[in-house]
Amino acid sequence: MNDAAPVIVVRDVTKSYDGGRVPVLRGVSLTVRPGEIVALWGASGSGKSTLLHLLGGLDVPDAGELSVAGLDPRREAHRLELRRRHVGFVFQLHNLIPDLTVAENLSVPALAVNRPAAATAARIQELATQLGLGPRLAHRVQDLSGGERQRTAIGRALMNAPRVLLADEPTGALDERTGGAVFALMKDLAGRSGIAVVLATHERRFAEACHRLVHVRDGRLEET
Amino acid sequence: MRSLSLVFVNLRRHKLRALIGVAGIAFGVAAMLTILAIVRGAIGMFEHILVTDSQYLVFEKNVSDLFFSSVRDADVAAIRARPEVASAQPMLFGIVSSPGYPVITCFGVEADDPRLAHAAWRAGRRGDFGARTGEIFLGSRAAEFLHAQPGAPLAIGPTTFRVGGIFKAANGFEDGGVFLPLAEAQAYFHRPGVASVVAVKLRDRASGAAFKRAVEAAHAGLVALEDREFSRSYNSFKILRATSWAVGVCAFLLGGLGVANTMLMSVFGRIRELAVLRVCGFSERQVAALIFGEAAAIALAGLLAGGAIGGAVLALLPHVPQLQGYVHAEIQPGVVLGIVAMALVTAGLGAIYPARFASRIQPVEALRYE
Questions:
Q1: Which of A17, A48, A76, A108 best probes binding to B when mutated, by most B CB atoms within 10 angstroms?
Q2: Could you give the ipTM of this predicted complex?
Q3: Looking at the domain A34-58+76-223, which fold is it?
Q4: Burial class, B191, CB count within 10 angstroms (exposed 0-12 / middle 13-18 / buried 19+)
Q5: Cβ-based contacts under 8 A for chains A and B
Q6: Interface test with A, best of B280, B283, B360, B368 (most A CBs within 10 A)
Q7: Is B313 helix (H, G, I), strand (E, B) or coil?
Q8: pLDDT tens digits along B334-359
Q9: Residue B225 falls within a domain, yes or no?
């Protein structure tokens, strides 16, 4: 546990779908500090992804308070700013843009914030070095292995140097060895950059390897 | 906006789809350019026939077509007698036929008509015009398709004339027409003492307004119009221009539907990608701008391709044997600007719904989309 100010604060957040008939999160609270890696562990449909979507400004809660990097994801303008500069997403199915090269995929978040081309190129080189993608930068993503694709997705999420990385089952589509490597990479990056990582996973071994393990069950959080 | 650099990336990735959109606009541009240039050229040629060496046209008020206009000899004489008039050339239009050629324009003119003076005579002399009865004079193109020889007989309707001369006229309609002395034309068309129009040259153009008022006051059934005024107000020209624009606009509408279809296919085909862009920080505006940018790029490419196709068609048409002399395309800056505006507006309209749809994609739902 560190003493830095929390980068994520969630208080009594509820979220339901279908006009309230399908409750997904039932008054959850969570605090995450910079450099922490928090695992949201639970079965499919337990509410892990929904909480990540709320934290990343992809969806809004029905009630409760949220603060991510000092911004309020309930406000539209803050949600956009969150996605642009403060939060990076990694999905189970990497969601890279086909036909584009690794470098082009990495540059997408930089395009959103109009970062100058030279600065983008320098950042791509920096990320490629960290992620071991240097020789693959000019390759199209469909020519990459599963692990390389997920490393590219991590690089894209880190392009604008966010304070929070949200990863939704990032190892779910990878074999055991590759999944382990991707997880180790994320942990290493978090440790070196001080970025807060919230990782949704149903794999116990990755959840236990995080700094904190939060069990998500029936829309409630239980920290173990 | 650097995000627009993705416009070309996306078009490059979906070449066939983009090409279909480009083709839709290109055909619209080519159709509009070709039609408008040909119609404008045809109107120009017809205007030239009417205003050769003249500034005003006098003809019967409210006629739907100059072929139906009647200006009596007495009116012509009165106009000629006006002090401000330098010359007044009556002209009678008619349609004649010859075996295999049902529609040939016939011009009934006087011997001192400036058209005959400006023509390059290939057979016979200008002085022969009207010197003998029963003679007809041909534009070189008409002589060619009628296989007419100087001095040989030529059947025109029920009458057989002798070919009195052949000349090359600069104007395509005149070069493809036949000429009779005015009196013979009046007799042939059973319109004795009547001309269709009178082309008037004034001693001083500044007296034009007074001339116009005087003619309309003295000759209740006639109207005098300055050449440009005539061009603007003549019903047949107006109908031709309106029709050509309407056909062009229809071609563009089809092109616009093509763009709309292309952009819709493009958006529906990459809903997940657009959702990823939103996740990566693209605003609704940036996503919409991306779609409009793609449509604009398609429109610009279509404009270039359509301009090239239309230009090629216009360059080739005058060399088609059947059209020689009749097609004299005129590409005016206003027409080009109109076509550019139409292409961009069409593409823009075609992109409105796809852009609106794309910008409203909800990332969470879209990422579940297969």
A1: A108
A2: 0.91
A3: Rossmann fold (3.40.50)
A4: middle
A5: 57
A6: B280
A7: helix
A8: 888 988 888 888 888 888 999 999 99
A9: no
